[in-house]
């Protein structure tokens, strides 16, 4: 999906007295506790032994899958060292460290897999260098190679709830275009063409988006309110204001689909 967040995030890395980063988020996307629970139940029905999380970030969903599937081993790959460290810390805290690996590497052209379950939530851009929306098609092909026959893929992918107006597009991420995403029907057709059957189709609702976008900014907003004279205050304010304006432009227009896909034999 179009990553609506990275462009405006503070640079990763240790910071001692600057703004915090993503401390109010449980998941790095619009995902409620209720949906996460039902996803984990569905994805573990088939007792996966191997789980691969593409662009895992801190891998909250993978860790919940591993907790629900005690025989499973999981590998999350990402290029963000700070998020991976958070994932390792969480795995340790939950007694899952012996079954959860967080590896700093790019998913582009990865030779990992095939796994019984592949998670790719908000991360399809990690699997293809093509321009949107072709990258979705390429990512689906890559996901089919990464999953075992009969296995499952959870794809969390952006789509247009409706065609955005030119005014809305001009307020979104830099260079936003109507061709950046497909609609939901086309996304499903592409998944089928790539060798999947859709077991379950669901989409993030507005409550999940509002929770995510608020939590995404909340720690930095409260930091800024408390530190108006900090050397980083001006650039932080500019970043927050820019992201808020973008979010107000894609709110209700950009969707996120959670597709539970079966890898057809
Ligand atoms: C929106 S976040 C989603 C994180 C996680 N899947 C989740 O749902 O919480 C997108 C992630 O993709 C990662 N990413 C971007 N390019 C990547 C690449 N080439 N290889 C691996 N990960 C990548 C980013 O570092 C980021 O953690």
From TrEMBL:
It holds the Pfam family Methyltransf_12. The keyword Nucleus does not apply. InterPro entries: Methyltransf_12, SAM-dependent_MTases_sf. Residues 1-22 are annotated as: Disordered. Gene3D superfamilies: Vaccinia Virus protein VP39. Residues 52-153 form the Methyltransferase type domain. GO terms for biological process: methylation. It comes from the Bacteria. One of its GO terms (molecular function) is methyltransferase activity. Keywords: Methyltransferase, S-adenosyl-L-methionine, Transferase. Its EC number is 2.1.1.-. This is Cyclopropane-fatty-acyl-phospholipid synthase family protein.
